[in-house]
Amino acid sequence: MIRRTNSVRLFSVFGIRVGADLSWFIALFLLIYLLSSPFKDTLHSSEAVAYLTTVISVLLLFVSLILHELGHALVARRQGIGVEQIDLYLFGGLTRMNREAATPGEDFKVSAAGPLATLGVILVCLAIDLAIVGPHRLTHAIALDQDITITPVLLSLSWLLPMNVLLLVFNLMPAYPLDGGRIARSIIWRVTGSRRTGTIISARMGQGLSLALAVFGLWLLLNYGTFAGLWAIALAFITYQAARSAVYQSAMDERIEGVRVIDIMDAHPVAIPIDTGLHQALDEYFLRYGWSWFPAIDEHGRYAGIVTQERTQASIDSGEGWLTIASVVDAERTGSWRVDQDRPITDLIGSESLGLLGAVMAVDDDGVLRGVVTVQQLRRAMQSALSPSA
Q1: Which residue among 55, 122, 295, 301 has the highest number of C-beta atoms inside a 10 angstrom radius?
Q2: Does residue 168 share a domain with residue 179?
Q3: How wide is the angle at C-alpha 266 spanned by C-alphas 263 and 267, nearest 5°?
């Protein structure tokens, strides 16, 4: 689960936005291109049937990745961790959560949920395969043995089954940032009582795995010239960087431990009540302060979302100036744009809100807006905490 930023919205499920990074589209078309010819040779059918089978199979693989991430997301919600978004990218998926696990138990449950979902996908594929060919010919079906009739459905399932097994085995390796590494971290955290110790040990294992994967990829490239070699090298680079960042952030967390959002936030934020008219909001807020966005609050002071000048002006220009701010509030990603005021400031690192808005909204346990933290405030606080005199 490597943190990324922008993505294209695909759909929503259980109120969770599912998006795709540009690299996902590259992976999608690349897999379709690489599999089309082998699928056609196996099916002995027309190009149209082989191509359609390839597309469906590749899409089903990504559906299994979404189910994996949904496992993380739904269990995280049960643990009280906010989840707003799932992103697909070149090497897998990422579940965006508004905070890290607070206990080893939470960490273990959330980390293990994804592999369990993948195991469920494997069992479903296995059951359907068994129903089609029977237990005695299962291995022949997976090996695509020409002694049995290979149909498009059987081909798709027989490809998905080993692919998901491979993903499950790789993802369970005890090396951060893989789920196995996060599970290992939670166990070490439980035993030692130190999250930092668990993170460092699992991240070091992640760096070791990345180096081994890079060597393997180089061997494949030099000896066979396969695309899998390049894929393995690229994956090794990504995982090594993520593990290295975890080690660095762990050391930084130790230095700034105890500093909370409430300690650095602007406790007097300017916010627009949602019952404010659009013309009034434009005159009294956007034109007066010269800011491009404001947080919106309901009648009880609870944070309702973000309001932008662009969206407000567009509504007025389209003849809807009689409406209130409630009609233009962007509430879709409210959870990813706010943080509990009592959370440590390390929760803000890599925040989507900081990347897009340059600020994040601080709320209390009732969701009431209590402050705003800007990128500059976070940077100053971290520089102060990490300075030699600190």
Answers
A1: 295
A2: no
A3: 85
